[in-house]
Amino acid sequence: MFHPILLFTLLLLPLASANAAQPIRLGLNYPSTGNYKSEGLELSRGALLAVDEINGRGGVLGRPLQLVSLNSAARAEKAEANIDRFASQGTVMVFGGANSEEALAAGQRARQLGLLYFPTLGYANEITGRDGHRHLFRESNSAWMSARVLGEYLSWHMPNRRYYYISLDDAWGRSMEQALREATKSRDRARHGYSKIAERGARRGEYLAALQKAAASDADVLVIVLLGQDLVQTMRLAQTLELGKRMQIIVPNLTQSIVEQAGPLVMENVIGTEAWTWRVPKLVDSVEGQTFVDRFIAQHQAYPGSTAASAYGIVRQWAAAAQRAGSLDSEAVIAALEGHRYRLLKDEQYWRDFDHQNVQSIYAVRVRNRSEIMQDRFKQDYFTIIHRMDGEEAAPSLDDWQQERGDQLQLQ
């Protein structure tokens, strides 16, 4: 006959085991529709690969991870509202997004609810600058970091050129144009002209008018500060006008999905920046990076782009920080992330404690000729790395950051 206490204990064991195995929910705020849905697909693929890998190793603190995904449509108000939905579903961290406006809005709401937020494809300087806060960590590079590596490359190889800027009129577009003007000494707007594209609802005629103004100028370099379908449409029109034959076209933040959508012929010889390409792991002897590339290829018969790599890295880094902290509590994970140095998909990276910017090497890349690309097995080997800058050199200094922050010199 069972002793009553022993019987009671045995009855509780299944319940205790069930509670211990309850999944840890991570929220992916990503565009599955709209102008950035291709980027959203890549975010999802990278995140799922990280979740599967972590769960295969026993999860985090003995519990499996579960990815909860909501469509942000790359709209700030929708991304912000999704944070409340994630919180109601018990997520402990949220990441994703395809532009800076949604990163800023969703990040602030996450802070109010005590959730950590990791933006992806959010390049505006304000994200970890003026509007940065304790609950936000940015894995991707800032506009200033892209501008620094481009500025150095262009000053060496194309000095004293005249520029024309076509920029999206949003937080990222403004900060990217300003940073690149500083880096290339093209501040004089009378000499280096510009056109602005509306943040939402721009039509073909606006893109065409901006390109025609650029064509009528004496510019040697055309900088197109756009993303998603805005960029795809503008690049196709630029090809029709044959602007690439007389100007060097710069797209500051290039992604693999952009080249796929616009087509390699349209993007041929365009220069931009990437924080990672699928060739980087071999260049820096990163075993884990090459394993990620191989696993992604095996699952999707395609190369991973920097967007997938960013989502993968965020999940891996959050999980490792929670494991080090021995807790899912946001404050404990923040402490475990700040100042942490690591190697994952490339050479050394670290989370800077004063602004939560991920400091990492940045690459200037050129889109290869279509004939070269078509010889590749997946017809996706798009980028040639033409310049590299160390993260410490690319990232704004503490003095730069404090100048931008004004009186608020600590993250709140």
Automatic annotation (TrEMBL):
It holds the Pfam family Peripla_BP_6. SUPFAM superfamilies: Periplasmic binding protein-like I. Keywords: Signal. InterPro entries: BCAA_transport, Leu-bd, Peripla_BP_I. Residues 1-20 form the signal peptide. Residues 23-369 form the Leucine-binding protein domain. Transmembrane segments: none annotated. Belongs to the leucine-binding protein family. This is Leucine-binding protein domain-containing protein. It comes from Stutzerimonas stutzeri (strain A1501).
